[in-house]
Give the backbone structure.
Amino acid sequence: MGLRSHLSRARGALSSHLVSIRAAGIVEERTWRDLEDALLLADVGAKTTDELLSEARERFERNDEVDVEGLLGILKSVLIERLGVTDRSLATGGEPSVWLFVGVNGAGKTTTIGKVGSREVAAGLQVVFAAGDTFRAAAADQLATWADRVGSPLVRGAENADPSSVIFDAVEHAAARGADLVLADTAGRFHTKSNLMDELAKVRRVAEKGSGTVTETLLVIDATTGQNGLVQARQFAEVVEVTGIVLTKLDGSARGGIVVAVQEDIGIPVKLVGVGEGGDDLVEFDPVDFVDALFGVTAEI
């Protein structure tokens, strides 16, 4: 199932502007103002919005026969091109590979790890879960439920144990049993606290001291937080080498433009999106599908 059926709220944020633009029947200065308002309300961000509309206007003015629908198609094409020039695959290659999951509490990090684990086990990989958020017993318990569900081992430590040691032990456990992949949870308290960011940097270093190789560091962001998610991405990226974004709750957000803002502002691609509560509701991000879902018109590429 594509993103279209899941993004009604994000599409709704644009719909009122698109209705007025289409009703006008002609492209005029007000059209560009309405498009600017629509992109800003979707949390694309001011700088990126300006760049997108400048490129769309340049293409539009090269062809004076393009109508309103054609203009929307041009804007779609510009968005798709900007989003599509990046690798969104999840990297493996270690023995085992280690995927670290970082993010603030409440973003859906632990649930995301469970869903990723379910997906990778279904694909035939041997997975070990690491309950590295030792400051919340509920997080380890939640991860244990997912591990039981998919039939994979979980390595956890005592409450308030050193998160780095738990993840290190999980990597060694995975190596000893020939597992392919370690999915490691990390502490998720407020990202503004420097000691917690230092802790994440330590986790990253220790995770590679043994048998494993960190091939992904995935930042989990709640899409409903909009531009706050962009602030989080900047701060986490300063501490650990974030390789991709997992955007949760995209189905419940009118701020889907954060996908564009994160990639344009920081250069970190959105690799996975959460579009529901079910185990299968974590899907690979597809730029064409995403833009189609928002606009519902055909691109003029």
